[in-house]
Design the sequence.
């Protein structure tokens, strides 16, 4: 298999597995475990198969173009460092999967757990395989997200939710800093490609922006690796199921920060800022973590703080900036992952089989579970740094490095002492972990009798402990080649220092310090052990006030409070202030543009002729109508509709006056339809009478609001008048109109340029527009189907009731007949108009390409023809005689318009290209026939369909009411 | 002077429309939107400058732009007229549904608190 494929497999397999596991049924515990196990095995085998290809320090790269136009590709990059991290992620992942199969209760939705776990595994793989800085930051955030899901897996548990939220907030915030830092680094070095960035070390360091970039990247790494002062999220994350803790806090999540530091080490490793921040955070974390671990009563809590402490150790090694320090850091990363994963699993077994993790309740478990006990003792010894185990070797290297670097900075001189002290703490808490749990009298406070776990649950612990031993005894043979390849990836071939992985280096300073630490730890346990085990206060001595979690919670509530305050000050749920803000913002934008560009009015005032005075008189009427409509819209809706129609008519005449016959025609027809629509709607609005008065407070408020709005409206009007006058009085700028006028006939086959633009040049716009119209029609129908009128609009309107009540009734006639018959003549006229309006619509449609008219006008005219029949005869009469299928018409309209466009594609032309030719027709003579006419037919159908649909749907509301009443009456009679 | 009159007309229409837009009752807002769309249609139309008696209906062989009124703003406004009809219809139905569901024709869906 090619290396590219293998690379792709180790990244993609976990994600695919996660997707599949998510689809498994809730109880499919074993299938999900087998799936996850297979996924990790396949990835692990692929990773192993890749090993020979770059054991000598080659870098495998696979670039998958993603957004080639932006130069962004997905780059997978595998070198020695990524390989060793991949091996940890996949190897320990496989063991955790096996362990989790037995740990997880069948009552939980276990497939979801495995799905999260696999997705997290994939995200981690993405981090370590990224060959691109942005890509790394993206996967980094993905690990934060999936760790959130994993920690909060038992979401019914409040502490799990809290812990998950805290972990997400801290690590994702760090991730955002990381992203900004990466963007800075990318902009300094000119590339986001990791290889380019590593090669641009001198350029990056010379740039002053490298300081903030480094600080931001370190924010990301230190939050992820739970370094002081961000360490507080890790102990809270212990609310997660134990397999998650074993995975996240040994081999993966927290090690992502270490990985990032290692990746950045070649660039920044020798800078001052790096030394102070990284080494400072490392040494503080090492000590604080170890100190706090001593005082924990919860097994997992102890392990959590011990993890923090060991991470501090690794970070300190990296902070020292020496090549040997980096090598020791990688080595300890691997060792810590193995012994810490096995210890977490052992703690989980104890919890599972004894029912508690509280060391005050546990005691003498060795006699109940000797095998687990032995395994835990070995792993804890590795944690304490006892010889013959892997922890000893890397701790030796650490001490050697600290001693070797103990000159120069003041901090360096203190380091050997601090390191030995921390090691002694480590011995102390490891001892306590073992002695308090496994030795002493049999437990008395347990709910059940502890016993050994199922064999397969113990198997992962056995494998890990065996590795601890193997590496501890034969380091050069087991981990040597991998460590070397990882070291080469960080340090390069030329700078690779000499180091020895032997068990015995002779009597030297590090050994002495190791012995001191061991002896100190044992002595401290002998003296303080009893006190520690009963420590009633729980917390660590002397560090009560240093509670990051508390500060975090305070900060969170502060942020929420602040947001609420801002919202209460600046936000509103009310419509009117929002709309006013929109209007003001539009005004401000216009004013800003005017001030920036400058507006000058060049008045052109010729002596007004008679025509101009007529025009002015026209608008005196139109403007008056508009103002009166605004005045009356609240209490006299009918009057307002009529007045608005007046303003519409005047603008219609304006269009005729100023050479826009098509606009005038369309506006006139649409005006008719709009008016009918509004009249239909009036029926359902509440009565509003002037004599009903609101309270004094409300009145005062409303007066104030009206005054402000009047000013706003006046300013808007003045501004628009000013701008339009300024534009109208300056010479025309040559635009695209020349093109349209010149080619309308020769290329579009029509003389009406406006229509040719609509159906030919810009037909795609029109297509979009009729689609919108169709959607609006359907939306209106959908909204009205569920329409329930308010109770006060239910009874028949006053006018209708009055009609039923009129005066004395002649013989042979019913009440109301007289009033109904007053409509007789209009009704006959309107019935007879039906064919004529249709002929007019056809006429408008046919001549539209050459003369004013066209699809829109014809469609609206047709719908008016239908509408007239409704008005004259009522819905039932019309629907008995006419087959109205407006939804079908909409569908056909769209189909015809789209089909007309698709035909052009069939001829290898762009969508909606039109063709035309002249044909000789009998009687009519030579006429141009354009395919655009077919498109226009689609427009007609759609417009008539949508318009009729809206109007009929609205008109039917009154009918439906009547029908419902009739049904109710029937129901009552039946009862 | 035609320009001045039309500019004043656009101003009056938009002022009336804006004022109605800011009113509390849904019917007022719908009237405001209609008036505003008149104003905006005329405004867009006026961008092509005002000419009388020169509709953009070309004669064969005389397809010279200077002979005709600017067709581009007219095409834009024609679609705008139809779309503003659709907008009015949709908003009318939304206001009816809101009135039916909440019992109030206030734009906030409830009567203002005392």
Sequence:
């Amino acid at each position: 298999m090619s290396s590219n494929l293998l690379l792709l497999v180790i990244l993609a397999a976990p994600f695919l597995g996660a997707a599949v596991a998510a689809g498994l049924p809730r109880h499919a515990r074993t299938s999900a475990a087998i799936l996850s196990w297979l996924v990790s095995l396949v990835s692990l085998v692929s990773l192993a198969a890749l090993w020979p290809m770059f054991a000598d320090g080659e870098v495998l790269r696979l670039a998958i173009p993603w957004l080639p136009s932006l130069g962004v590709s997905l780059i997978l990059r595998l070198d020695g460092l990524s390989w060793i991290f991949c091996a940890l992620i996949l190897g320990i992942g496989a063991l955790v999967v096996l362990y989790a199969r037995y740990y997880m209760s069948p009552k939980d939705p276990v497939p979801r757990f495995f799905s999260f776990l696999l997705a997290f595994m994939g995200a981690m793989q993405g981090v370590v395989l990224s060959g691109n800085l942005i890509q790394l930051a993206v996967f980094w955030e993905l690990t934060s997200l999936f760790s959130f899901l994993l920690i909060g897996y038992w979401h019914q548990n409040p502490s799990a939710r809290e812990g998950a939220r805290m972990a997400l907030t801290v690590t994702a915030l760090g991730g955002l800093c990381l992203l900004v830092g990466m963007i800075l680094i990318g902009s300094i070095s000119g590339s986001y490609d990791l290889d380019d960035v590593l090669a641009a070390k001198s350029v990056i360091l010379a740039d002053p922006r490298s300081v903030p970039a480094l600080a931001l990247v370190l924010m990301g790494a230190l939050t992820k690796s739970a370094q002081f002062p961000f360490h507080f999220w890790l102990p809270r994350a212990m609310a997660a199921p134990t397999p998650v803790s074993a995975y996240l806090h040994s081999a993966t999540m927290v090690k992502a920060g270490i990985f990032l530091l290692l990746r950045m080490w070649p660039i920044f490793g020798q800078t001052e800022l790096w030394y102070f921040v990284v080494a400072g955070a490392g040494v503080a974390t090492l000590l604080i973590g170890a100190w706090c671990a001593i005082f924990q009563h919860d097994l997992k809590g102890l392990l959590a703080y011990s993890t923090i402490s060991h991470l501090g150790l690794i970070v300190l090694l990296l902070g020292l900036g020496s090549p040997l320090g980096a090598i020791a850091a990688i080595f300890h990363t691997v060792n810590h992952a193995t012994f810490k994963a096995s210890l977490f699993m052992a703690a989980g077994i104890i919890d599972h089989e004894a029912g508690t993790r509280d060391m005050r309740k546990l005691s003498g478990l060795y006699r109940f579970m000797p095998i687990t006990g032995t395994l835990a003792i070995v792993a804890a010894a590795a944690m304490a740094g006892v010889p013959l185990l892997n922890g000893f070797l890397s701790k030796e290297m650490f001490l050697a490095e600290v001693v070797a670097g103990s000159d120069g900075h003041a901090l360096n001189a203190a380091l050997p002492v601090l390191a030995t002290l921390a090691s002694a703490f480590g011995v102390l808490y490891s001892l306590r972990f073992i002695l308090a749990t496994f030795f002493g009298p049999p437990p008395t406070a347990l709910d059940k009798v502890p016993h050994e776990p199922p064999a397969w649950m113990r198997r992962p612990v056995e494998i890990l402990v065996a590795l601890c031993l193997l590496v501890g005894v034969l380091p050069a043979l087991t981990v040597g080649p991998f460590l070397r390849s990882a070291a080469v990836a960080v340090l390069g071939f030329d700078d690779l220092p000499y180091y020895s992985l032997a068990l015995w280096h002779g009597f030297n300073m590090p050994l002495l310090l190791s012995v001191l630490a061991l002896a100190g730890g044992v002595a401290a346990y002998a003296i303080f052990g009893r006190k520690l085990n009963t420590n009633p206060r729980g917390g660590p001595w002397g560090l009560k006030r240093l509670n990051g979690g508390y500060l975090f919670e305070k900060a969170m509530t502060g942020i929420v409070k602040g947001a609420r305050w801002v919202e209460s000050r600046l936000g509103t749920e009310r419509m009117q202030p929002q709309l006013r803000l929109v209007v003001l913002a539009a005004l401000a934008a216009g004013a800003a543009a005017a001030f920036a560009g400058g507006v000058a009015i060049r008045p052109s005032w010729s002596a007004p002729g008679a025509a101009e005075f007529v025009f002015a008189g026209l608008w005196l009427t139109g403007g008056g109508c508009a103002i009166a409509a605004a005045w009356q819209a609240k209490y006299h809706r009918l009057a307002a509709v009529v007045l608005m129609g007046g303003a519409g008519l005047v603008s219609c005449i304006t269009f005729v006056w100023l050479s826009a016959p098509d606009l005038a025609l369309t506006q006139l027809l649409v005006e008719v339809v709009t008016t009918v629509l509004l009249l239909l709607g009036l029926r359902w609005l509440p009565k509003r009478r002037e004599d009903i008065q609101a309270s004094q407070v409300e009145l005062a408020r409303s007066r104030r609001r009206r005054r402000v709005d009047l000013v706003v409206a006046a300013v808007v009007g003045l501004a628009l008048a000013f701008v339009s006058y300024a534009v109208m009085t300056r010479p025309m700028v040559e635009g695209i109109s020349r093109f349209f006028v010149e080619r309308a006939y020769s290329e579009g086959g029509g003389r009406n340029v406006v229509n040719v633009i609509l159906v030919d040049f810009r037909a795609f716009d029109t297509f979009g527009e009729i689609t919108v119209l169709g959607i609006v029609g359907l939306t209106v129908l959908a909204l009205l189907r569920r329409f329930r009128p308010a109770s006060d609009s239910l009874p028949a309107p006053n006018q209708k009731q009055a009609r039923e009540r009129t005066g004395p009734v002649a013989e042979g006639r019913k009440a109301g007949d007289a009033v109904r018959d007053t409509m007789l003549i209009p009704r006959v006229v309107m019935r007879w108009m039906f064919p004529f309006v249709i002929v007019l619509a056809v006429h408008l449609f046919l001549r539209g390409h050459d003369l004013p008219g066209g699809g829109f006008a014809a469609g609206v005219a047709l719908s008016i023809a239908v509408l007239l029949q409704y008005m004259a005869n009522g819905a039932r009469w019309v629907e008995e005689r006419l087959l109205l299928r407006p939804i079908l018409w909409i569908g056909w309209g769209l189909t015809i318009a789209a089909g007309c466009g698709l035909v052009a594609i069939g001829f290898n032309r762009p969508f909606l290209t039109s063709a035309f030719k002249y044909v000789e027709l009998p009687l009519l003579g030579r006429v141009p026939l354009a395919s655009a006419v077919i498109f226009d037919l689609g427009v007609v159908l759609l417009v008539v369909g949508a318009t009729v649909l809206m109007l009929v749907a609205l008109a039917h509301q009154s009918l439906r009411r009547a029908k419902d009443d009739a049904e109710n009456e029937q129901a009552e009679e039946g009862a | 002077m035609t320009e001045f009159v039309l500019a004043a007309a656009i101003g009056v229409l938009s002022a009336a429309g804006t004022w109605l837009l800011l009113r509390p009752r849904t019917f007022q807002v719908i009237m405001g939107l209609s008036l505003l769309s008149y104003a905006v249609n005329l405004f867009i139309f006026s961008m092509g400058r005002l000419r009388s008696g020169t509709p953009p209906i070309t004669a064969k062989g005389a397809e010279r732009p200077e002979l005709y009124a600017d067709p581009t703003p007219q095409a834009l406004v024609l679609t705008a007229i139809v779309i503003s009809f659709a907008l009015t219809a949709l908003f009318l139905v939304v206001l009816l549904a809101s009135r039916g569901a909440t019992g109030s024709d206030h734009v906030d869906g409830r009567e203002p608190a005392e």
Observations:
- Chain B has one domain: 2-50+69-102.
- Chain B touches chain A through 91 residues (CB under 8 Å).
- The radius of gyration of chain B is 19 Å.
